[in-house]
Amino acid sequence: xxxxxxxxxxxxxxxxxxxxxxxxxxxxxxxxxxxxxxxxxxxxxxxxxxxxxxxxxxxxxxxxxxxxxxxxxxxxxxxxxxxxxxxxxxxxxxxxxxxxxxxxxxxxxxxxxxxxxxxxxxxxxxxxxxxxxxxxxxxxxxxxxxxxxxxxxxxxxxxxxxxxxxxxxxxxxxxxxxxxxxxxxxxxxxxxxxxxxxxxxxxxxxxxxxxxxxxxxxxxxxxxxxxxxxxxxxxxxxxxxxxxxxxxxxxxxxxxxxxxxxxxxxxxxxxxxxxxxxxxxxxxxxxxxxxxxxxxxxxxxxxxxxxxxxxxxxxxxxxxxxxxxxxxxxxxxxxxxxxxxxxxxxxxxxxxxxxxxxxxxxxxxxxxxxxxxxxxxxxxxxxxxxxxxxxxxxxxxxxxxxxxxxxxxxxxxxxxxxxxxxxxxxxxxxxxxxxxxxxxxxxxxxxxxxxxxxxxxxxxxxxxxxxxxxxxxxxxxxxxxxxxxxxxxxxxxxxxxxxxxxxxxxxxxxxxxxxxxxxxxxxx
Length: 524
Description:
Elements: H1 16-29, E1 35-37, E2 39-41, E3 44-46, E4 51-56, E5 59-68, H2 72-91, H3 94-110, H4 112-123, H5 127-150, E6 155-158, E7 167-176, E8 179-183, H6 191-202, E9 206-211, H7 217-228, E10 236-240, H8 243-252, E11 258-262, H9 265-276, E12 284-287, E13 292-296, H10 302-314, E14 324-330, H11 334-346, H12 366-378, E15 385-388, E16 407-410, E17 426-432, H13 435-443, E18 447-448, E19 450-454, H14 457-466, E20 471-474, E21 494-495, E22 514-523
Parallel strand pairs: 1-5, 8-9, 8-11, 9-10, 11-12, 13-14, 13-19, 14-17, 16-17, 19-20
Antiparallel strand pairs: 2-3, 4-5, 6-7, 7-22, 15-16, 18-21
Helix pairs in contact: 1-4, 2-8, 3-5, 3-7, 4-5, 5-6, 10-11
């Protein structure tokens, strides 16, 4: 497409061809609606009597399909299939695993528009967010394959021991753990499944993926790409089920050797503790959400700040762990920023997420829809007030979906919702007297995922030096706290936002799926 590279930063001005191909994929996808889908275990579909009927969050009268639900027996079957497949997959030369992963990337890219259309229907994402999510998996696969190549399969020759009478050869080798569980969230059901799965597979682990009940279709589409790329039976398995039953059975299973989880702080901490409570500790890579803040100083360009704030607070209806939730603005420019935000918010086009001019679709679940009303009610108490939005939307064309107005609220700095991750299109604003006060408030959260800053260039280094977050942005109109892309911005959190301090798609992420063995060989 004329050299265009889709990322979360470039998605705001795509070429015409992208829109044409997406619209065509949406039209053709209608033939798939209402079909039954199975689990994916040991290389084949497994259909269950228990199913969940998945509806379009933009139109609850549209049934996308019926999806099989796993039980604890299926967990055991999938884990045992992965254990049986592990020795052969571990023994497959890393170069062959890399070649297969590149085939997965090629198939995802080939099916980009069809998968993105399904993601849009399933989650309620606008077309650009859906295309970005699927394209991100292509990047994950290629990046991790390239890192294996650049590091020679993580097999490094070390210096010989300084022994005069012996030839003592040393090396460091990273080896896979075994069976890896991946627990994916509802908001990025393709990317936050595909990324960890790609890392685990290329490292030599076999995988059991558990998808969210709210978004079961994406995992099936990923499974098809993996199977068609030639991944052997049993190496990858896909289950759908409730976290409290199927998810818990998976992370407690004695056949699991490591876990990657994306979701809430409470569940992530539970999973992490459970892995350390075993007879021996198992690795747990947990990304556990955020309460992301932006600091706006008196020196900020308010037009740029407003654009970045709106994009990060209301993109995907606020259902990103990186979404902007807290604005700390210098009191001297607060009214000016509020005015800019109101104008930008009123220009947001809300509606069917498949339409080209729609920027904001519905929230993905009935639970989020109810939470939005609950939070808006709370933001009319304890001294808080809603400045813009604050209502669910039931106008013609929206009445059958989970549509919510983008909402800006001003609140006293002691309001309890400053500390709660809401995961809906609500952002709170507080006035501060100094950058130092803003920094203290921004860092006063148990989370530390993303953070943004708008101010003078002279203030930027101060921001980077003091902010306690894993992903940080300064003076960025493309998004105050969102928009990380593999190869450009590693994505991972500090404090309660992440368990390892290592970021997705960074130099340091892939080795977490392997453990080190030091080898010394005395030559005869």
